[in-house]
Write a structure and sequence with these properties.
Blueprint lengths: L5 E3 L1 H6 L9 E4 L2 E4 L11 H5 L4 E2 L1 H7 L5 H5 L3 E5 L2 H5 L1
Parallel strand pairs: 1-5, 2-4
Antiparallel strand pairs: 2-3, 3-5
The chain binds protoporphyrin IX containing FE (HEM).
Protoporphyrin IX containing FE binds next to helix 2, helix 3 and helix 4.
């Protein structure tokens, strides 16, 4: 069905860094993905993908493989959209 997207602040993104049992979230072009289930399948290795955990991974991603269609691959893993701390309060 249609996923319901939550609004994610920079501090929430930073918190979900994949360490200490927390999920690994990463944002790409303003959308937030739960990359946890994809970690073991990443062709570049789990460690490389973890470098983007809890962060905006757009720059790293584009440096390595701009041709990869992440919308297609991670569509099922969308969590929400990035908002500023101020926007989250309104
Ligand atoms: C390779 C997907 C994030 C580093 C690949 C490949 C795919 C992929 C499909 C194979 C590409 C090909 O052979 O043409 C993804 C997805 C990501 C992601 C869906 C987002 C969730 C990242 C990040 C980094 C990274 C953030 C770096 C910090 C690499 C490297 C390879 C690779 C180094 C090359 C492996 C090799 O051929 O030796 N990734 N990737 N990836 N990825 Fe990612």
């Amino acid at each position: 069905g249609v996923p319901s997207l939550i609004r994610v602040t920079p501090s929430q993104l930073k918190y979900n860094n994949g360490r200490k049992e927390k999920p690994a979230w990463s944002s790409y072009q303003g959308k937030v993905y739960n990359i946890t289930p994809y970690l073991p399948f990443h062709p570049g290795g789990e460690g490389e993908l973890r470098r983007a955990a809890g962060k905006d991974g757009t720059k790293l991603f584009m440096e390595v493989h701009p041709w990869v269609n992440w919308e297609n691959m991670l569509g099922e893993c969308v969590v929400g959209v990035m908002v500023s701390e101020e926007q989250a309060q309104s």
